[in-house]
Amino acid sequence: MAFRNTISQACQRVGRPRVNHLRAGLVGLSFVRGKATLPDLPYDYGALEPAISGRIMELHHKGHHNTYVNSFNEVTEKYAAAQSNSDIASQIALLPLVNFHGGGHLNHTLFWENLAPKSSGGGEPPSGPLKDAIDQTYGGVESFKKNFNAALAGIQGSGWAWLVKDKETGQISIRAYANQDPVVGKYVPLLGIDGWEHAYYLQYENRKAEYFKAVWDVLNWKAAERRFG
């Protein structure tokens, strides 16, 4: 299987690639002629204030996420060239960069969907089967938040915390991922929070625990419920 097809299949785990962006709160992954593109946000940069400042959202989206998109496109072109030349050593050397920049694109695309202004349901508690699973596994939403924030606080350096669903058992769990490692394989990503400093430092500085608490005020549980199924 061609490498580019493998990347496309990985991206389809979180959103079907298409040229036009999805609406109604679903950012979706988008591609133009095989290249990853920066998705539009379904809300203004300042719409998540005061939980997340508009300046942070603009830098995070137009700066950091866009860098992952451009770098991913560059490294996949290099990989394709190495593959066409049967340069196995170069292909292996490029894989960590594919994982990092591709993961950065996947993670941030999901993250934007996981956020919503309060006027659009941000901060409203989960409902339905996902709430039942949280109640059964963690004893309630507030207990879940405490466990999730503990996972975020425990990340050494940069990374993400995710609520995931096991594809085989259907069980949910909280898992921390280093750097930009994406949720792939046996787990389905339901809800993720960015623990990198660029997600909060301009506003919260070294008070990251305040960011971990505030982000729940604009969390879009509807996106997580759709992924849970």
Layout of helices and strands, plus pairs?
Layout: H1 3-11, E1 30-32, E2 35-37, H2 54-84, H3 88-113, H4 128-138, H5 141-153, E3 159-166, E4 172-178, E5 187-194, H6 201-204, H7 208-214, H8 221-228
Antiparallel strand pairs: 1-2, 3-4, 3-5
Helix content: 40-55%
The secondary-structure class comes to alpha+beta
Calculate the mean pLDDT score and round it: 88
Q: Give the biggest sheet.
A: 3 strands, antiparallel
Question: Which regions have little confidence, pLDDT < 50, spanning 5+ residues?
Answer: 1-32
Largest beta sheet: strand ordering: 4-3-5
3D shape: globular
How many strands appear in the DSSP assignment? 5
- How do the SSEs run, as a string of H and E? HEEHHHHEEEHHH
Strand content: 5-15%
| Distance between the ends | 29 Å
Radius of gyration: 18 Å
Q: How many H/I helices?
A: 8
Structure commentary:
- Strand 3 (159-166) and strand 4 (172-178) form a beta hairpin.
- It is globular, with a radius of gyration of 18 Å.
- With 229 residues, the protein is an alpha+beta fold.
- It has 8 helices and 5 strands; from the N terminus they run αββααααβββααα.
- The strands form 2 sheets. Strands 4-3-5 form a 3-stranded antiparallel β-sheet. It has a two-stranded antiparallel ribbon with strand order 1-2.
- The longest helix has 31 residues, at 54-84.
